[in-house]
Amino acid sequence: MYPTNPIEALRRQLDTLGESAKKGFVRLNTPCQVDSLMGWLSVQRVLPRIYWRARDEGAVEYAVLGVVNVFGSLASLQADLAALGDIGGEQPDFFGGMAFDPGTPGWAHFPACHFVLPRIELKRCQGEATLSLNLRFDDRCPSTEITQAHACLDALVAERPLSPPLPKAYQREDSPSQKEWTGWVDQVTHQEHLRHTPKVVLSRETCLTTSETPNPWALLSRWQAGAAGCFNFGIQLTPDEAFIGCPPERLYKREGKHLITEALAGTTHRARDVQQDAKLAAELLGDRKNTLENQCVYQQILSQLEPLSHHVHLGDSHIVKLRSVQHIRRLIKAELHRNVTDQQLLSALPPTPAVGGVPRESALAFIRQHERHQRGWYAGVFGRVSHASSDLAVTIRCAHIDSETIRLYAGAGIVAGSQPDEEWRELDSKIADIMSLLGMG
Ligand SMILES: C=C(O[C@H]1C=CC=C(C(=O)O)[C@@H]1O)C(=O)O
Ligand SMILES: [Mg+2]
Fold first, then answer.
1. Ligand 2 geometric centre to CA of 315 (Å)
2. According to its UniProt record, which residues of this chain constitute the active site (predicted)?
3. Looking at the CA of 296, which ligand is closest?
4. Domains in the chain and their CATH numbers?
């Protein structure tokens, strides 16, 4: 269908780029054919490698790699969004994420905040794929920029099919142990503690060790196939390490001044039988402990949005059904005040009480004091930011993978009425999908 090699087509466009085009941000595009974006990403040598797809039906799929710019802070990202917005013309998409708690050391190769304007984008929308090359001429020498762009094109490799991840023998270790977990839940649900800190989301790291871990993109591709209604993300900043996930939770989506966010908290499992499953859902909606978990989230989001927006609307409680769990969700819509930026939203909203707690600082203090594992980018933020629109997920239901270890993370909101054993089982339900893909189900 496309007789020209897409890389060749981009090279030619680059060579004939007129002087007038060399200002601000430039995106060169060519149609291309691709089977699996993850299969393409998996064989590339250029870093970083990033995959992103929002949870909505028909959402655009992005596989991006290399960098034109890197941003290590929200302030620098926002300054660049503003600078490019002032120049006008086409605007880029920035991809990246943030750690759960920038105040703690985090994961070795994952900065507290890391967003990139990628060099190469492979995008698929309604079955049509486009390969793009991004360039910048406002902050650098044009000839150097063109040389670097050529080098990145030269490094691209043809897509190869992903081989399915094979079950392996993993050694499992949980931190905390169930015994420690019980002690923590008892502490958080003690009357005295609840008086000043009504909710703490405690988490567990499950370490699976083996001689050789599966290809993260093959794993994500399989995971995505069974995770309808979830975001899908993957990022490789270093060659032998990846962070992937299929989170059901949206931090926010902004289209111009329209904002959509949500309180997703309160969990039960799924039943095979349809009637039994509906009964579980009805019980969840009426359950005091689970309703309280959700209430803590929407109340804090509403109060954080108050100074930033008007016409804030809280939707009804409803059930979101996923493969292994069902959750209570309430959607929140708002109109942002003029000049409210993504930097402000990303400074105010995360970590929401779906992953942190209420009040935020005292819940974080409990987590910092007790959890020995580093949450890193688990329960942080991942997504796409641009001048016109942004969409970001909360990074739950995720896995950090290096050459010998897969680390799975799950948290549970502890409030008045939480029972240690039930909450421990909730953690297992939350990692059930990925565990079964690994042959550990
Ligand atoms: C913190 C997690 O889930 C949150 C999102 C939905 C339901 C939750 C709950 O019921 O506890 C959690 O707040 C996680 O999956 O690691
Ligand atoms: Mg819960």
1. 20
2. 199 (proton acceptor), 249 (proton donor)
3. 1
4. 6-154 (no CATH), 171-437 (3.60.120.10)
DSSP state of 359: S
Alpha carbon nearest to ligand 1 atom 13, residue: 354
Q: What is the pLDDT of residue 103?
A: 86
pLDDT at 1: 43
- pLDDT (0 to 100) of residue 184: 98
Can you tell me the distance from the alpha carbon of 81 to that of 9, in angstroms, rounded to the nearest whole number? 29
Q: How far apart are CA 71 and CA 65, in angstroms?
A: 15
Q: What is the CA radius of gyration of the chain?
A: 22
**Residue 291 φ then ψ, to 5°:** -65, -40
Alpha carbons within 13 angstroms on the beta-carbon side of residue 102 total 14
Q: Which residues have CB less than 5 Å away from ligand 2 (the ion)? A: 267, 412-413
Residue 293 labelled as part of a binding site: yes
Question: What does the alpha-carbon distance between residue 298 and residue 314 come to, in Å, rounded to a whole number?
Answer: 8
Q: Which atom of ligand 1 is nearest to the CA of 430?
A: 15
pLDDT along the chain (441 residues), means of 10: 80 90 91 97 98 98 98 98 95 98 94 98 97 95 95 96 89 98 98 98 98 96 97 98 98 98 98 98 98 98 97 97 98 97 98 98 98 98 98 98 97 98 98 96 85
136 lines ligand 1 (CB under 6 A): no
